[in-house]
Amino acid sequence: QPPPPSQQPQHQLFGHDPAVEIPEEGFLLGCVFAIADYPEQMSDKQLLATWKRIIQTHGGAVDPTFSSRCTHLLCESQVSGMYAQAIRERKRCVTAHWLNMVLKKKKLVPPHRALHFPVAFPPGGKPCSQHIISVTGFVDSDRDDLKLMAYLAGAKYTGYLCRGNTVLICKEPTGLKYEKAKEWRIPCVNAQWLGDILLGNFEALRQVHYGRYTAFNLQEPFAPTPHLVFNLLDAWRVPLKVSAELLMGVRLPPKPKVSDVTAQPSSKRARIEDIPPPTKKLTPELTPFVLFTGFEPVQVQQ
């Protein structure tokens, strides 16, 4: 089956009420978050405190438990009592990946990539545990997203392609990896295949040769398949209201210091020449030791 035409009438989705002007720094005004799944998954408990601080810095609030006052549930999975309650009460269920995207855009934007939605299996569930995935044609943040999607699905990800790979995710049907995959009879699919599995279409595991997964050059390769997220988008069909009192009393906490903002990867990488030379020598136990492999001795020296 070819993918259905995207001309279907799209239900309009909203962040805030478009009639109300929200100050840029307070783009999370009116958002009250509860958090599920993540605390149990996190090895670094400080990270949760950082998320809370960043949400509050931009006008949002974080409640210790889920209640009717919450507007958003930050969760990794659709399999929990808290998620079921949130969906029943038409709350917005989103992932930390969505929060990252919103922090970058400084705007309350509805979720629009598969990774912005909680997965359709319990945390640590691995529908793709049999797969060794490689990727071609995707770069930068798109490539990072595919790595994360593979990890969440329980697949192994390799930067190279070899005969052991079970599937190649392609942006377009070109390039050396694509040619080799064809030669070695490794199925080539689009990014939608992995997105569909994360969102609960486990049939896709057997449908690597279906037309909908072998159509390339998609305009939005990471967009979720509409019927898989229909109920998740329900809460976004109603704009989020911000009371006049909240807007009037907008006294946002001071901006976090640059070192605090870890939920948001920096868009600018420091160039080597911008970094000041070190001023003090590290003690031996704090000094990093780097081992090289596969380089010529001259390259190691450089």
UniProtKB/TrEMBL annotation:
PROSITE patterns: BRCT. Residues 258-281 are annotated as: Disordered. Its main location: nucleus. One of its GO terms (biological process) is DNA damage response. InterPro entries: BRCT_dom (IPR001357), BRCT_dom_sf (IPR036420), DDR_Transcriptional_Reg (IPR051579). Keywords: DNA damage, Nucleus. One of its GO terms (cellular component) is nucleus. The lineage of its organism: Eukaryota, Metazoa, Chordata, Craniata, Vertebrata. This is PAX-interacting protein 1. It holds the Pfam family PTCB-BRCT. It comes from Mustela putorius furo. It is found in: Nucleus. Residues 23-116, 133-194 form the BRCT domain.
